[in-house]
User: Fold BTB domain-containing protein from Lophium mytilinum.
Amino acid sequence: MDPTMVTIFVGTEKKPYTAHMDLLTHYSDYFHAMFKGSFKEAEERNTSMEDVEETLFGNFLDWLYHQTLPCPLSDYSLHPRPTRPTNPGTDLRTSAKLDIVTRLYALGDQYEIPNLRRDAIDHVFDYYEREGVVPYYRSVILTYDLLPEDSPLCQLLIDRYIRKGYLASVHDYNENKELNTDGKLRADLPHAFLLGMMVKGLDTMADLAAGKKRKSMDVCDYHEHASDEEREKCKEERKGKKTAAKNTTTKATEPAAEAQPVTAVVPTPTLTRIQPATVVAPTPMPTRNQPSIRRWISKIL
Assistant:
């Protein structure tokens, strides 16, 4: 990778951040035109993003260098199925995390970063599929504040509501209770969102009346694929990622194998034939200059 760095002054305080120009221009058509074209930024190697918050830009840099979003699904508290109107705290915390991803999607929309938009769509789609819930009112309001009403993320929220609309009453109770809004959030839902739900709902009822089978939601419908080939490639990549994630989870949750007792192997001794001992006669002590006992006795007598 080319080591050339560029400086980006972020926020109203214009805090400087540096990043590799190759990475920025590879993922963003906006930055490619800016730093690879004939603009003054290409010569000065710096630009400003005053309308972007520092924290959000930091999240973007994390994605740029690591290709991961700041709130992986594994970090979410598991959301209880909304079978009864009690879920203290969880909705609010989860909605705040989804807000970060929504803001990253909007950043990808503004600065033409399609891969970032795709990762954000995957995240939101997989969360709602896993938890079986409808979008939070505050998430809907934020999404329509940041994006045009024909944005794929806006359409995803509409489709999700139509798909799981029977949960809306329970969800409405939970969110209003946590935020103490007394229904104000519902009243603040964007007109474009409500109109989109009405049109989608009528189309769905017409299809069912005509005997058409209801299709399951497909995340690639929101990916803005340029061709059918790209769409099929995306499906295969997602399938591979899910398989890898499932295998990793399975290995992490498998109980450790029970230790087997170790059998000590005692080596067989080698039998050695015992040889008969050789009797060695003791060597007599020297008797030099010693008179015989008989001569000694005779002298005494």
